[in-house]
Amino acid sequence: MLNFDFSGKNIVITGGIRGIGYSVAKLFSSYSSNIVLGYRSDHDLAESVESEFSLGNSKVKALCADLSSQDECDRFMKESLSFLSGIDIFVHCCGIRQDAPASMMKNDSWNKVIDVNLNSAFYCSRIAVKKMLKKRFGRIVFISSVSASVGGPGQSNYAASKSGIEGLMRVMSREFADRNVTVNCVSPGLIDTDMSKDINKSMREFYLSVIPMKKFGQPEDVASAVAFLSSDQSSYVTGQILKVNGGMDVS
Ligand code: NAD
Q: Residue of the nearest CA to atom 2 in ligand 1?
């Protein structure tokens, strides 16, 4: 029988109060784990999610930080580690899109997407992994995207950030493998969240025509993959990209 057990685990999730991050947090919280939920701005939602998951002995904190800057990444991780007194699992879920054709892409849009999606993954996981290496245990899961391998038009910044995450994951996985710290990516296809809600009807129809399962995924589909890669049961899995995309990208 395959039973996950995250009870007592200390977990940091960036982008943890909505969408995919919320589903990941919900799954972990059902095992009485201790969780920090990163968020950028919605204090009311953060408060309600924090109290929703603060059950029994679990320590749960929603922590506001704009992870587009290194200083904020450092502060966020410092406060997270101090609240939890350690870290076992780091899930990097925060991300944004600012699409435009490459020829028209503004510097601001390029830099912002690289900062939020990629640079924060490096700055935060660099801090997390130091604790994990000392403890000889850790799980790092980065959320990539189908865009890294497919390269959707208008997404030069987004695709570059997600390809960067996959490269970072490959290197970290090799560097830390002999100390029982695994590093993997989950790569979602199209998932029903705030990020995909601005897709217009004709694009939605186009995407459905190229997804073999003929439907968008749900955040819970991604959360299950994150849970596997965060579990003791995946101890011999590192440096991998687990695709959750309804069969869209089989490369
Ligand atoms: P979402 O917009 O609901 O969540 C994005 C999260 O990132 C939010 O919690 C937001 O607060 C956080 N965030 C944004 N900017 C931030 C900043 N500057 N500092 C700190 N946090 C910030 O969308 P989602 O679909 O849940 O996205 C989660 C992850 O999944 C992202 O990395 C996204 O790229 C990836 N993804 C989503 C899809 C999809 O179709 N929804 C597909 C592939 C990959």
A: 195
CA distance 209 to 227: 29
Ligand 1 shell residues, CB under 6 Å: 14-15, 17-21, 38-40, 66-68, 93-96, 116, 143, 145, 188, 190-191, 193-196
Predicted model pTM: 0.98
**pLDDT tens sequence across 134-159:** 999 999 999 999 999 998 899 999 99
CATH code for the structural domain at 10-244: 3.40.50.720
Q: How far apart are the CA of 157 and the centre of ligand 1, in A?
A: 15
Tokens linked to 113: 């997407």
In the chain, where are the structural domains located?
A: 10-244
Q: What is the C-alpha separation between 72 and 40, in angstroms, rounded?
A: 11
Look at the block and give the residue holding tokens 């943890």: 16
